[in-house]
C-alpha cells in the first residue's frame, strides 16, 4: 500500500486513491468545484491543484493517484498563489448576483473567495454576458452567467440517470451550459442537479426566492415518500419546512433523492389536521384534547355483543407509534384484530423510487408481530360486520373500496396528520403531528431501521401518535410509562425479535440493518 | 421611636439608648443615597450609616446600569460589538472604540496604516478633554458653583460638535473599525480643531481662575477623599485618581501604544491624593492633551486609513455593486463576521479614568467567544466606602465627583 506525506503528515492508503481523497482522510482541506465523490472526475476547475515535490507543475489532487513516497503540499506559497489566481479567473465574468441568488450563504465561490482570494477584481474590460433565467424543465432554472462550467450537472444526468440533455456549447469564455435542441430535463431526478451545482447556476423553481439559507435550521431525517427511506435533511425556519436536501447514506440513497420525494415537503404545510375533532350533530367540531380522547375511548369501548376492536396500524407512522398502539390494543381493548395499511402503491423506478409508497410498512408489520392483517382482510372483516369499532392510525388507506368500507364503520376513531377524506368520516379525529415534527424510527424496504428527528415543532395542537396512544390508554384505564420515543424504542428492543440488541443511540445517522436482513444491493445507476 | 432596621451587612457600631440625662440618645441612621439621586452620577446606590453628619460605614451597590454588554458581545459579529463600546463610558465614547479595536487587531495580528494610528490618537485625546471637562464642571456644580459647569459644558460643546462633524454622532460614535476607521477626517478638520482648542483653553482658563484658588472650593476639596499610594495600588486604581497620589503610571508612557512614544507630553501628578489634587491633575491633562493633538496634526501624513484586506474591511461601495469580488467580500463580512483566529489577547489604553482594557477570546468564529471589558472606575468604586467613612455627608459629593464614576463603564 503506497505511503505518502501530505503537509508533513504520513498516511498509508490503498492504491488508486487520489491525493484529494488521501488529504480528506487526514482532514486537510483542499478546495474544489468540479469534483464530486459520486461522479466521474474531469479535473476542469483546477481549484484543487497542489504542489508535489519533484513534479514540474502543480497537479490536480482530485485526479492524480498517490504514489509511494510522494510528498504533497496543500498550502505552500505556490499553491496559495495559484488558488487565488484560479478564483480570480472563475470570478472574472461572474455576475454580481449575490443579492438575488439562492446560493448565497451556501456558495462555494463565496466561501473560497473569502478563504483563498480576498483581493479586488482586475477586470478592466466589459464582462461577457450570457442568458439568464432559462427554464430547463422539471422545475430547474438555469442562469448561464453564473455557471462555472464544472459539468457536474452534465455528468450527473449521464452517469446516474443515464440520459444526456445538457451540454456545453460555444467555446472559450463564451462557453455556455445549455439543453441540447429539442430536449428538456425530465421529471424524476432533475432536482439533484440543483444540489450538485456548486454555484447558483441551477436553482429550483420550487425554492427560488422563498427563503434565505442562513435562516434555515437543519434536522436530519428520512423521507416519507416511499419505502426506500432516502436520508434527508429537513430545512426549516420558525415552524415551517422550506425544503428537503438529500444526505449521504451509501447503502440507501448515496447522495441523491428523487424529485417526488424532494418536493413532498409541501405536504407538511398543506391540508393539515391541527386540532382534535369530535362529531356532534353530524358535524366534526374542534374540541380540547381531553374531550376528544374521552370520546375516542367511549367509541372504542362501545359494548355490543363482545365483537373485537380493529386497529389499523399505519405504514406511514413510526415504529414507536405503531408499537404504542399495539400495546394499547392488547392491554386495554381485550380482543383486537390488527392490520397494517397505508397509501396506495405507485410506480417504482430502477433508481430510488420503490413502489411501496409508505416509509414504514416493514416496521409496522414487525412490531405488530404474527397474524397481522392487511387492507384486504380489513375489508372483508368490515363487510362481514366482525368489528365493533375501528381505530385507524394514519389517515390514508390504499384503495377506494377499503376507504368506503372503513367510512361505514360507526365507531371510527382516526389519528391523522391531514384532513383526509377518511378523517372526515370519523366519529373522532385525533390530530397527529407530521413525521418531521417528531422523533422516531422507520424501517425501509430492505430492513434498515433509520431515525427521524424532530425538526419544527408540531403544528397547531397536534402531537406524536405515540403520545396520543399514551393518553388514550390513560382514558382506557392503563398508565404506560413512556416519556419519549427512545423509551418506546427500548421496549421494542426487548419485545420485538427483529429489534433485539438495538438502542436508540446505536442507530446512528445511517441506520442499522435489523436482525435477519442482509446487506442490500446499492441503487442501480450509481458509480 | 423605633430605629429603622439596617441591612444585615452594615455594622451598627455605637449606640446610646435614650436616658434621662440624654433624652435623645444617639442612634445611627441609615441613609440611602441613590440609585436615583441628584448627586449620584449615573445610577448607583450608596447606603451610608451616619452618626450626625459623620459617616460611620458605607456600602456601595452597583449594577443598576448593567446591560449585559459582555454577554451580548457573544451574540453578534466582531464589528457589531463596536456600538456596545460607545455606551460604556458614554462621556468619552471614542476612547472605548479605540480600546476595543486595538484588542481585536492584536488578536488577529494585523497592523493598521500609520494615518489610522494618528487619527485614533487624535480622537482619543479629544475624548479625554471632553471627559475631564465634564468631570470638573459637574464637580464644581455640585459644590454650588454653577458657572464653571456652564463654562466647561460650553467648551465641551465645541468638541462635541467637532466630533459630530467627524462621525455623525456625539455619543454613539462607533467610529473605529477592526482594521481601520469608519472614514477619514473631513477636509480642514485639523485646522478647525486647533482653533477650537484655543477656545477651549479660554474656558479652561476661566474655570481655573474661578476654582483653583477659590476658598470654598479648596475647603471642600483639599484633604477630602484622601487616599494613600498603597491604597490606590491595592485597589488597582489607575488614571488621574492614581496619579493624584504621586505615582506617575500612565499607560501611554509605560506601555506605549499607537504612536504615543513619538509625541512629547507630560504626565501631571499630585501629592496628597485628595480631591483637590485630582482636580488639578485633570485640569492639566486637558492642556497636555492639547499638546498631543498639536503634535499629532503636525506629524500626520495623508494616506490610507484601513488595512488593504477585504476579509476585514468592507470593500468600497463602488466595488460592492460593480464587482463580484466586492460583493462577496461585503457579503462574507456582514453575514459571517471577520475571520479572527482562535486565541486570546488583551488590548489596553489610557482612558480618561485610567487603564481601560479589553480581553478578547476567539474560537475562530465570526462572533467573539468572550469580550471582557476592564473599566477603570470599577476599581475605583471598590475603594469608595473607605474613602468616605469618617467624613461628613457633604464630603461624599466632591469625593464621588472626583471618582468620575461613569455607570456605563462600571456596570457595562
- Average pLDDT for all residues of chain A: 91
What is the overall silhouette of chain A?
Answer: elongated
**Largest beta-sheet characterization of chain A:** 7 strands, mixed
What value does the Rg of chain B take, in angstroms?
Answer: 23 Å
Secondary-structure class of chain B: mainly alpha
| Alpha-beta content class of chain A | alpha+beta
Report the portion of residues of chain A in β strands. 15-25%
Approximately how much helix is present in the residues of chain B? 40-55%
Biggest interface, chains and residues, is: A-B, 19 and 19 residues
How would you characterize the overall build of this protein?
The complex is a heterodimer of chains A (527) and B (412). Chain A is α+β, with helices and mostly antiparallel strands and 527 residues long. In chain A, 27% of the residues lie in helices and 19% in strands. Chain A starts with a strand and ends in a 14-residue tail after the last strand. The model of chain A has no long low-confidence stretch (mean pLDDT 91). Chain B is built from 16 helices and 8 strands. Chain B has a 3-stranded antiparallel sheet with strand order 1-2-3. A 3-stranded antiparallel sheet of chain B has the order 6-7-8. In chain B, a hairpin with a 7-residue loop joins strand 7 (354-362) and strand 8 (370-374). The radius of gyration of chain B is 23 Å and the shape is globular.
Keywords:
heterodimer; A: 527 residues; alpha+beta; seven-stranded mixed β-sheet; 23 strands; elongated; B: 412 residues; mainly alpha; three-stranded antiparallel β-sheet; 16 helices; 8 strands; 11% strand
Brief characterization of the structure:
By secondary structure, chain A is α+β, with helices and mostly antiparallel strands. Chain A contains 16 helices and 23 strands. Chain A has helices at residues 19-26, 77-91, 108-117, 152-161, 192-196, 259-263, 266-269, 289-301, 319-332, 361-368, 375-383, 400-408, 421-424, 465-475, 485-495, 504-507, and strands at residues 3-6, 9-12, 49-52, 59-60, 71-73, 134-137, 140-142, 166-169, 176-179, 202-204, 217-222, 231-237, 240-246, 277-280, 283-286, 309-314, 336-341, 389-393, 412-416, 428-431, 440-443, 448-452, 512-513.
Amino acid at each position: 500500500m503506497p505511503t505518502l506525506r501530505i503537509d508533513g503528515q504520513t498516511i498509508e492508503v490503498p492504491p488508486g486513491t487520489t491525493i484529494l481523497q488521501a488529504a480528506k482522510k487526514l482532514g486537510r482541506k483542499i478546495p474544489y468545484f468540479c469534483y464530486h465523490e459520486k461522479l466521474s472526475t474531469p479535473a476542469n476547475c483546477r481549484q484543487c491543484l497542489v504542489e508535489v515535490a519533484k513534479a514540474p507543475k502543480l497537479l490536480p489532487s482530485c485526479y492524480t493517484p498517490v504514489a509511494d513516497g510522494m510528498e504533497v503540499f496543500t498550502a505552500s506559497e505556490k499553491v496559495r498563489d495559484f488558488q487565488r489566481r484560479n478564483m480570480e479567473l472563475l470570478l472574472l465574468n461572474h455576475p454580481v448576483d449575490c443579492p438575488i441568488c439562492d446560493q448565497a450563504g451556501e456558495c462555494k465561490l463565496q466561501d473560497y473567495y473569502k478563504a483563498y482570494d480576498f483581493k479586488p477584481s482586475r477586470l478592466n474590460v466589459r464582462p461577457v454576458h450570457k442568458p439568464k433565467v432559462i427554464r430547463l424543465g422539471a422545475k430547474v432554472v438555469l442562469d448561464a452567467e453564473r455557471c462555472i462550467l464544472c459539468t457536474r450537472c452534465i455528468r450527473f444526468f449521464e452517469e446516474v440517470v443515464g440520459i444526456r440533455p445538457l451540454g456545453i456549447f460555444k467555446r472559450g469564455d463564451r462557453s455556455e451550459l445549455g439543453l441540447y435542441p429539442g430536449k428538456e430535463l425530465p421529471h424524476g431526478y432533475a432536482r439533484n442537479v440543483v444540489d450538485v451545482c456548486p454555484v447558483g447556476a441551477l436553482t429550483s423553481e420550487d425554492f427560488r426566492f422563498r427563503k434565505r439559507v442562513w435562516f434555515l435550521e437543519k434536522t436530519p431525517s428520512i423521507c416519507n415518500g416511499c419505502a426506500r427511506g432516502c436520508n434527508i435533511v429537513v430545512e426549516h425556519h420558525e415552524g415551517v419546512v422550506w425544503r428537503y436536501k438529500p444526505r449521504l447514506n451509501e447503502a440507501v440513497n448515496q447522495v441523491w433523492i428523487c424529485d417526488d420525494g424532494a418536493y413532498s415537503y409541501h405536504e407538511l404545510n398543506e391540508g393539515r389536521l391541527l386540532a382534535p375533532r369530535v362529531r356532534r350533530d353530524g358535524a366534526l367540531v374542534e374540541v380540547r384534547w381531553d374531550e376528544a380522547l374521552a370520546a375516542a375511548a367511549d367509541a372504542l369501548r362501545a359494548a355490543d355483543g363482545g365483537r373485537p376492536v380493529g386497529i389499523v396500524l399505519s405504514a406511514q407512522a413510526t415504529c414507536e407509534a405503531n408499537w404504542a398502539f399495539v400495546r394499547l390494543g392488547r392491554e386495554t381493548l381485550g380482543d383486537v384484530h390488527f392490520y397494517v395499511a397505508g397509501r396506495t402503491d405507485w410506480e417504482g423506478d430502477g433508481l430510488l423510487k420503490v413502489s411501496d409508497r409508505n416509509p414504514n410498512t416493514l416496521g409496522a408489520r414487525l412490531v405488530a408481530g404474527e397474524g397481522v392483517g392487511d387492507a384486504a382482510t380489513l375489508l372483508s372483516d368490515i363487510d362481514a360486520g366482525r368489528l365493533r369499532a375501528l381505530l385507524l392510525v394514519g389517515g390514508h388507506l390504499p384503495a377506494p373500496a377499503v376507504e368506503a368500507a372503513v367510512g361505514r364503520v360507526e365507531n371510527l376513531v382516526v389519528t391523522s396528520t391531514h384532513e383526509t377524506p377518511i378523517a372526515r368520516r370519523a366519529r373522532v379525529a385525533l390530530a397527529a403531528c407530521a413525521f418531521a415534527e417528531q422523533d422516531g424510527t422507520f424501517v425501509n424496504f430492505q430492513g434498515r431501521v433509520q431515525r427521524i428527528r424532530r425538526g419544527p415543532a408540531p403544528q397547531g395542537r397536534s402531537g406524536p401518535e405515540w403520545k396520543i396512544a399514551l393518553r388514550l390508554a390513560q382514558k382506557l384505564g392503563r398508565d404506560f410509562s413512556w416519556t419519549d420515543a427512545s423509551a418506546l424504542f427500548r421496549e421494542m428492543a426487548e419485545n420485538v425479535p427483529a429489534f433485539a440488541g438495538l438502542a436508540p443511540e446505536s442507530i446512528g445517522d445511517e441506520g442499522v440493518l435489523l436482525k435477519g436482513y442482509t446487506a442490500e444491493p446499492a441503487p442501480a445507476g450509481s458509480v | 421611636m423605633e430605629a429603622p432596621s439596617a441591612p444585615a451587612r452594615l455594622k451598627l457600631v455605637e449606640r446610646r439608648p435614650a436616658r434621662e440625662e440624654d433624652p435623645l440618645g444617639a442612634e445611627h441612621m441609615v441613609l440611602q443615597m441613590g440609585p436615583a439621586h441628584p448627586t449620584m452620577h449615573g445610577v448607583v446606590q450608596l447606603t451610608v450609616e451616619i452618626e450626625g453628619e459623620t459617616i460611620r460605614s458605607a456600602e456601595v451597590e452597583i449594577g443598576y446600569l448593567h446591560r449585559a454588554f459582555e454577554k451580548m458581545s457573544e451574540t453578534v459579529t466582531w464589528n457589531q460589538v463596536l456600538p456596545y463600546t460607545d455606551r460604556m463610558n458614554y462621556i468619552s465614547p471614542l476612547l472605548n472604540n479605540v480600546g476595543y479595536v486595538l484588542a481585536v487587531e492584536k488578536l488577529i495580528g494585523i497592523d493598521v496604516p500609520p494615518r489610522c494610528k494618528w487619527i485614533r490618537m487624535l480622537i482619543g485625546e479629544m475624548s479625554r478633554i471632553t471627559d475631564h471637562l465634564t468631570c470638573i464642571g459637574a464637580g464644581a456644580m455640585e459644590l454650588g458653583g454653577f458657572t464653571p459647569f456652564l463654562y466647561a459644558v460650553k467648551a465641551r460643546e465645541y468638541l462635541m460638535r467637532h466630533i459630530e462633524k467627524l462621525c455623525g454622532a456625539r455619543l454613539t460614535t462607533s467610529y473605529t473599525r477592526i482594521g481601520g476607521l469608519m472614514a477619514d477626517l473631513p477636509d480642514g478638520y485639523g485646522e478647525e480643531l486647533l482653533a477650537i482648542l484655543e477656545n477651549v483653553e479660554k474656558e479652561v482658563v476661566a474655570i481655573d481662575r474661578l476654582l483653583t484658588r477659590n476658598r470654598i472650593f479648596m475647603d471642600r476639596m483639599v484633604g477630602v477623599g484622601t487616599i494613600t499610594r498603597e491604597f490606590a495600588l491595592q485597589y488597582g486604581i489607575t488614571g488621574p485618581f492614581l496619579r493624584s497620589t504621586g505615582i506617575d503610571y500612565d499607560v501611554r508612557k509605560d506601555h506605549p501604544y499607537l504612536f504615543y512614544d513619538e509625541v512629547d507630553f507630560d504626565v501631571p501628578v499630585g501629592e496628597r491624593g485628595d480631591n483637590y489634587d485630582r482636580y488639578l491633575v485633570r485640569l492639566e491633562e486637558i492642556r497636555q492633551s492639547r499638546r498631543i493633538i498639536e503634535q499629532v496634526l503636525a506629524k500626520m501624513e495623508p494616506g490610507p486609513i484601513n488595512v488593504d484586506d477585504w476579509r476585514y474591511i468592507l470593500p468600497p461601495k463602488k466595488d460592492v455593486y460593480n464587482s463580484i469580488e466586492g460583493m462577496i467580500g461585503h457579503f462574507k463580512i456582514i453575514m459571517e463576521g471577520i475571520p479572527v483566529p482562535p486565541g486570546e489577547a488583551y488590548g489596553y489604553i489610557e482612558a480618561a479614568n485610567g487603564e481601560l482594557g479589553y480581553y478578547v477570546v476567539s474560537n475562530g468564529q465570526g462572533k467573539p467567544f468572550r469580550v471582557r471589558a476592564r473599566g477603570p472606575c470599577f476599581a475605583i468604586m471598590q475603594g469608595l466606602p473607605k474613602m468616605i467613612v469618617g467624613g461628613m455627608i457633604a464630603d461624599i459629593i466632591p469625593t464621588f465627583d472626583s471618582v468620575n464614576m461613569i455607570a456605563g463603564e462600571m456596570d457595562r
